[in-house]
Amino acid sequence: MTRTVHFVLLTTALVCGLACTASAKYKEVIDPAEARADPDFAVQGEYVGAGAWTDGSQQKVAAQVIARGDGKFDLQLLKGGLPGDGWKRGDNRLPMTGKRDGDVTVLEGSNLAGKIAGGKMTVATPDGSKKMELKRTERTSPTLGAKPPEGAVVLFDGTTADNFEHGKLTEMKTLVAGTTSKAKFGDCTLHSEFRLSWIPKARGQARSNSGVYLYDCYEVQVLDSFGLEGRNNECGGLYIKKDPDVNMCLPPLVWQTYDIDLTAPKFDAQGKRVAPTRITIRHNGQVIHKDVQYDRAGYGRQGEGPGPRPIHLQGHGCQVQYGNIWVVEKK
How far apart are CA 194 and CA 249, in angstroms? Predict the structure, then answer.
């Protein structure tokens, strides 16, 4: 193993340790009914509408409001709509902050001000000449609840966790992160659904961290990175390898989907790799990685090698919930 790989693995281990330690500081809520008791929960989320952008043009606009705890919020105002529905990486977005005071959240930004009340957001320039009006919305992945096709291997359907090593079934009939499938796969299509926890005071990698390990080798990051830029160590990222083409992460406690097409690496009789790994991923129905090729291992639990291999749902000090997991093997 080279010094570079040693350094990367050591750095990754240190980050993992720090993330797990940090997440333990804050209460983690996995039940939406409990989260709704926090008034911040009704404010965070996505908003869509229209109005005059800062350049005066009439635009479809959207906002993603991130809860930071104790009535504090960060938000991004997006020109053109929500990610995957008008806004794309590189398009204009404006940062603002918010502070909840009772039923009203006051917003501030550079040459902008506004408020959120009753599920409605207004943002305007100080003189009121440019104004945007938005309403809170809740998106649902188009593949949420997708039924396994004939011949699929059903790993989890909410009835039992027996198809996973040390699998834990909750009272909500969800599967808790930190488990590995007993079945092993090579080339396949994977459908997996997950739900991020509500931990508004947590930051960075401590904020509902998990990961789907394909072939026990290539990690698709799972993280509450709702409203962020979308990096390779954030939700939808191919860990260390590649940023998602667009950050499709939805707010915490909203069910999300990964639909993944995996072509596993191929090896000859002498153990030499003769064909690389290729991965295509749809996050909440949007392609975020298209036919990405791996020329080496993906910093997973195992290095590259002959298969088949299991699917691992990383435990990272957070109780990310999984549901409706099935695999179609390619012949």
Answer: 11
Of 104, 137, 170, the position where a domain reaches its end is: 137
pLDDT at 24: 63
DSSP 252-310: TTSEEEEEEEEE--EE-TTS-EEE-EEEEEEETTEEEEEEEEESS--BSSS-S-SS-B-
Same domain, 132 and 148: no
Helix (H) or strand (E) holding 4: helix 3-23
Q: What is the mean pLDDT of the chain?
A: 91
Residue ranges in the chain whose pLDDT is less than 70:
1-24, 297-299
Same domain, 152 and 232: yes
pLDDT of residue 295: 81
pLDDT for 79: 96
DSSP three-state, residue 166: coil
Give the pLDDT score at 329.
97
- State which of 116, 137, 158 marks the end of a domain: 137
3-state secondary structure of 19: helix
Torsion of CA 209, 212, 218, 221, to 10 degrees: -30
Hey, which bits of 89-145 come out as E strands?
Answer: 93-101, 104-109, 112-117, 120-124, 131-137
User: What is the pLDDT at residue 132?
Assistant: 97
Amino acid at 63: A
The verdict on 183 and 322 lying in the same domain is: yes
